[in-house]
Design brief:
The structure holds 2 protein chains of 2 kinds. Chain A is built from 6 helices and 15 strands. Chain A is α/β, with parallel strands linked by helices. Chain A has one domain: 3-Layer(aba) Sandwich (Rossmann fold). Chain A has a 9-stranded mixed sheet with strand order 11-10-9-12-8-1-6-7-13, with helices on both faces. Chain B has 2 domains: 181 residues, Rossmann fold (3-Layer(aba) Sandwich), CATH 3.40.50; 120 residues, TPP-binding domain (Rossmann fold), CATH 3.40.50.1220. Chain B is built from 8 helices and 17 strands. In chain B, a hairpin with a 2-residue loop joins strand 2 and strand 3. In chain B, helix 3 packs across helix 4 and helix 5 runs parallel beside helix 8. The chains are: A alpha/beta, B alpha/beta. The interface between A and B is large, with 81 and 100 residues. Strand 15 of chain A pairs parallel with strand 17 of chain B.
Chain lengths: 245, 325
């Protein structure tokens, strides 16, 4: 079983998001970057599925050299080896194209991503890779089990879930429930330094989207506090003023 | 050039988000002085198909193929891309639902189109550009994304565009594209629906509980309040991490982002990761016994008080309001 886990380098979840240069650039000053939390779930499941020498887990990232600490983290958690496509992750299409090209020459049985990255929240890379490789993709899964050459996943739908079975290889985006993230141990951290990390040049591809600018949500007005002994007043306000009930 | 909208159905019925999507697609067609075609896949009542005209769809392509009865994104994306070619559409619109997220990227690849996921307002087409505003950084910000390719795919975030009635006569036409066996290797084993519950991403009202509720056994009053309001249930990350509630209810940066008309947060302090997931809510009500809880800073209405005291009072106040209404 050869598993590829696609990882992103994203701002820590506690980051206060600000922009510079007239709101055209994300302000990375003082921002700590981490392994995308959903990708940690993908990585943890991949390690579980190959536990006991039953295959290998390759972590792949499209990014500049600044993402290497995050790639080493993936190796410390337990990835066998890693690949970095040396390019700025321009958009989901660019990233998916690079990864699909890599897979065309280096086939995998299972390709996992996180359900989305917590910076652009696109949920696009998994399905784009699937389409580029003409294999099934499931964008948001809550569970994944292997059964021989088939895989069974649980997919979230509005107000319920679907259980799907499909033949490998597939691409799937993992969400909470698939596995618990793993914390690297000292041996993992030590061995991560010497595990193979191959750097490759990107293949040329035309991009089709561009972030022009950013906005921050409009600040809300002052909170209207209702006294705890007059809860009926809140119901009145929600009906008459806010008009939401 | 024309606009194509995919009208998703759930068990043969169109959903609120479907009508939002058609209204949004109609507005984009109007921006470009062009026609709007809808495509529906699976068994939907003919009257419901024709009723899409109410929201501005001039033509409805309906695909009723036994093999496409259940949703398989690989096959549905092929059908929708075929439909786009058939009607010469260069803009494809769909909902950023769970299924939409599996479809939009595949349609984008097929049509060599840029994909704007989770759009929250109409595209800005001034100066010959095509810029879509979408949420980014898990609700902490918005990004204005320009689609630079001739073809474009936009998935609309639920609850972010109002349904607009603009009645036209919709011509319903059968559409039977070839479906490749290689696109249908996915087998749906089981569909589990909790039909008694309101779906969280689509909900108009959300009632959400946090650690302040002390344990899963105290969710009875939260459920009662949600039932009264026709609301969906949600929770904070510590609650789902502790197994008090399912992960599917976890709202926040690493859970689901919601944008209801009303979000009621009970016993949730308001960590930055949780606030990210609720920042698009129109009205936020916070009930917390700690007056310094950060959630009050982003709330529209608040009550400083113990949930075990306030929630039962709120339930009876709503019952009284309903009885008098």
């Amino acid at each position: 079983m050869k598993i590829l886990v696609c990882i992103s380098n994203v701002p820590d979840t506690t980051t206060k998001i600000t922009f510079s240069e007239n709101n055209t650039q994300f302000n990375t000053a003082g921002v700590q970057f981490i392994l995308n939390p959903y990708d940690e779930i993908a990585l943890a499941r991949a390690i579980e599925l190959t536990d006991g020498g039953n295959g290998s887990v390759t972590a792949i990232n499209v990014g500049e050299s600044s993402t290497e600490p995050t790639i080493r983290k993936a190796l410390a958690i337990g990835a066998t080896d890693a690949v970095r496509i040396n390019a700025k992750a321009h958009d989901a299409w660019f990233v998916a194209y690079q990864i699909a090209q890599y897979v065309k020459t280096n086939p995998f049985d299972l390709i996992l991503t996180g359900r989305e990255s917590i910076d652009y929240n696109g949920s696009k890379v998994a399905a784009m890779i699937g389409e580029l490789l003409a294999i099934p993709s499931v964008s948001i899964i809550k569970k994944l089990e292997l059964e021989g050459t088939n895989v069974t996943v649980e997919r979230e739908i509005e107000g319920g879930k679907e259980i799907l079975t499909m033949p490998l290889p597939i691409v799937a985006g993992t969400a909470e429930g698939v596995a618990d993230p793993k914390i690297p141990n000292m041996r993992g951290i030590m061995s991560a330094r010497t595990k193979p990390l191959i750097v490759m040049d990107p293949v040329e591809v035309k991009t089709n989207s561009e972030v022009i600018s950013y906005e921050t949500p409009a600040p809300r007005g002052q909170v209207t506090l209702v006294p705890p002994d007059d809860v009926a007043k809140l119901v009145g306000l929600l009906h008459d003023e806010a008009k939401v009930i | 050039m024309p606009v194509l909208v995919y009208t998703e159905n759930s068990e043969g019925k169109f959903k609120k988000s479907t009508f939002e999507t058609v209204s949004y697609a109609r507005a984009i067609a109007d921006q470009n002085n062009t026609t709007l075609t809808a495509i529906s896949i699976g068994e939907v009542n003919p009257a419901d198909l024709a009723a899409l005209g109410k929201f501005g769809a001039e033509k409805v392509l309906t695909v009723s193929n036994e093999k496409l009865k259940n949703f398989v994104n690989q096959a549905y994306a092929a059908v929708i891309a075929e439909a786009a070619k058939k009607v010469n559409a260069d803009i494809v619109v769909l909902s950023n639902s769970f299924s939409g997220r599996g479809l939009a990227p595949r349609i984008g690849v097929k049509l060599e189109a840029g994909v704007a996921d989770g759009g929250v307002s109409l595209p800005d087409q001034s100066g010959g550009k095509f810029i879509v505003k979408k949420t980014a950084f898990s609700g902490k910000a918005f990004a204005n994304v320009e689609l630079t390719s001739p073809n474009k795919v936009i998935s609309l975030s639920p609850n972010s565009y109002k349904i607009v009635e603009k009645a036209v006569n919709a011509a319903v036409e059968d559409f039977s594209p070839d479906v490749k066996a290689t696109d249908l290797t996915t087998i749906i084993k089981e569909i589990v629906r909790s039909t008694d519950k309101v779906s969280l991403p689509d909900a108009d009202i959300v009632v959400s509980g946090g650690r302040g509720l002390k344990g899963p056994e105290n969710w009875g009053m939260i459920e009662e309040l949600a039932d009264l309001l026709g609301a969906a249930l949600a929770c904070s990350k510590p609650v789902s991490d502790s197994g008090w509630r399912p992960h599917s209810e976890h709202v926040g940066q690493t859970g689901i982002a919601v944008s209801p008309n009303l979000y009621i947060a009970i016993g949730i302090s308001g960590a930055i990761q949780h606030l990210a997931g609720v920042s698009s809510s129109k009205v936020i009500v916070v009930i917390n016994k700690d007056a310094d809880a950060p959630f009050f800073k982003v709330a529209d209405y608040g009550i400083v008080g113990d949930a075990f005291d306030i929630v039962p009072k709120l339930i009876s106040a709503i019952k009284e309001y309903k009885a008098s209404a």
